[in-house]
Amino acid sequence: MTVTIKTTEQIEKMRIAGRLAADVLDMITPHVTAGITTNELDKICHDYIVNEQQAIPAPLDYHGFPKSICTSVNHQVCHGIPSDKKLKKGDIINIDITVIKDGFHGDTSKMFTIGKPGVVAKKLCDVAQKALYIGINEVKPGVKLGDIGHAIQTFAESQHCSIVREYCGHGIGEKFHEAPQVLHYGKPGTGITLKEGMTFTIEPMVNKGKRHIKLLPDKWTVVTKDHTLSAQWEHTLYVTSDGVEVLTLRDEEAGWQSIIA
């Protein structure tokens, strides 16, 4: 599969879609509290994307996915389907948002903690976020994808966590998922070489226990095999002439580089 190089006009549309996806996460934040159901979170996000942003929630009906957002709670790794189960104090949840605006996608996710998180849960969420930033920090023309995966894997494993290998980041643009596949593990100097104009996501799934996973009977929800906690953060990125632009960056992340300094 060929990696598409985006034009200046296409990048501008991706900036808009990325900004909208980030805005959904900001909008939903005060609603992510004990007692709310993930179905209610889904409806709030759906209505905001469709009515306020005049955009399209990309997950809805994507290969049959039944909801507008993904909500993965505790040991759910990714692709959790919103339901009538209420969030409770101590839970951690990943909310994954993808918005389509003017034909282009913006894809991002973040972890939320319900009430005061446990020490293990808090550390896992922090490790997963730092792993994402470490990966982003590697992005610039001339770097190989294996360098990014190696940096993420090395950090996560140094923190006694594991990286899920069956799911990865992906190219993105007019398609939700396009080339290249962006693995969150790997060897330096391997994989394709990054070029200006490429756009893709980095979205490491970090498990507190072993990396092994299983797919639930709903054919979407992925969970850790050993039922340990899992955390994930995601951003959509644009390879610039000399580095990277995070198209889905939220205001609260303005100093993200300082976290990995």
What does this structure look like?
This protein has 261 residues and is α+β, with helices and mostly antiparallel strands. It contains five helices and 15 strands. It has helices at 8-28, 38-52, 119-137, 145-158, 256-259, and strands at 56-57, 70-73, 76-78, 92-101, 104-113, 162-163, 169-171, 178-182, 199-202, 205-207, 213-215, 222-224, 230-232, 235-239, 244-246. Strands 1, 2, 4 and 5 form a four-stranded antiparallel sheet that branches. α1 (8-28) packs across α2 (38-52). 49% of the residues are buried. The mean pLDDT is 97.
Short summary:
The chain has 261 residues and is of the alpha+beta class. The protein contains 5 helices and 15 strands. The model has no long low-confidence stretch (mean pLDDT 97).
Give the key terms.
four-stranded antiparallel sheet; 15 strands; alpha+beta; three-stranded antiparallel sheet; 261 residues; single chain
Topology record:
Blueprint: H1 8-28, H2 38-52, E1 56-57, E2 70-73, E3 76-78, E4 92-101, E5 104-113, H3 119-137, H4 145-158, E6 162-163, E7 169-171, E8 178-182, E9 199-202, E10 205-207, E11 213-215, E12 222-224, E13 230-232, E14 235-239, E15 244-246, H5 256-259
Antiparallel strand pairs: 1-4, 2-4, 3-12, 4-5, 6-10, 7-8, 9-14, 10-13, 11-12, 14-15
Helix pairs in contact: 1-2, 3-4
Characterize the biggest β-sheet: 4 strands, antiparallel
Topology as H/E string? HHEEEEEHHEEEEEEEEEEH
By secondary-structure content and strand pairing, the structural class works out as: alpha+beta
Uncertain parts: none
Kindly provide the radius of gyration, computed on alpha-carbon positions and rounded to a whole number of angstroms. 17 Å
Overall 3D form: globular
First-to-last CA distance: 36 Å
